[in-house]
Amino acid sequence: MQPGQDPRTVPGIPFAGMVGVPSQRSRAGTPVPTFRRQEYVTYRRQLHRCLDAFAQILDRFQFDEDRPMTGLELEICLVDRDWQPAMRNQDLLALFAEGDLAGVFQEELGRFNIEANIPPRLIGGTGLDDCEQYLRTTLNQAQARAESIGIGLVTIGILPTITPDHTVLANVSSNPRYSTLNYQIL
Q: How far is residue 142's CA from residue 158's CA, in Å, rounded to a whole number?
């Protein structure tokens, strides 16, 4: 896969070539793809090929027990000055698009969420200290940029100020995978 290439266009990756038919609309009014039976069959075949390849990799791959590493994902809630969910993940991600924060953050399910992807580091030696320093520096930079547009970052499992009024389709992030997932499940 080439940098910046849409994974849906790469043969052998699930959903390759499966864009669906936007014949229906979600409750929020956005087009929602529907999939034909043959597209599900194609997806299942591709998924099984990927799982088979992954099993072969695991069978042959030796984990480097002498140099164990770990990375992490951190879910972050966005809040306004009253600690209410701030539906502004796209505004914030635009501020993070350049410099040291580029590529670290991405949107999550709700417009009041983002995710930080912290690259793997060695566990031994100063690896965990390095990871902590990177995380602190990154979050401090992100918080400073967020504050410039009136947003606070909160690293908490479930934001206690979220109400049912916040959990509506209009507050789902713009990535089509979320509306498709919602439509396919419901």
A: 20
pLDDT number for residue 22: 43
CA–CA dist 68, 168 (Å, integer)? 42
Q: What mean pLDDT is predicted for residues 95-106?
A: 94
Global confidence as pTM: 0.68
Q: Give the full edge-to-edge strand order of the sheet including 69-79.
A: 105-107, 113-122, 69-79, 152-154
In the structure, what pLDDT confidence band is assigned to residue 135 with cuts at 50, 70 and 90?
very high
> What are residue 62's phi and psi, to 5 degrees?
-105, 120
* Residue 13 tokens, joined: 């990756």
Cβ burial, residue 41 (10 Å; 0-12/13-18/19+): exposed
Amino acid at 141: Q
β-sheet bridge partners, residue 97 = none
Cβ count near 35 (within 10 Å):
16
Nearest to 112 by CA among 164, 171, 156, 161: 171
Comparing CA positions, the residue from 7, 174, 30 lying closest to residue 94 is 174
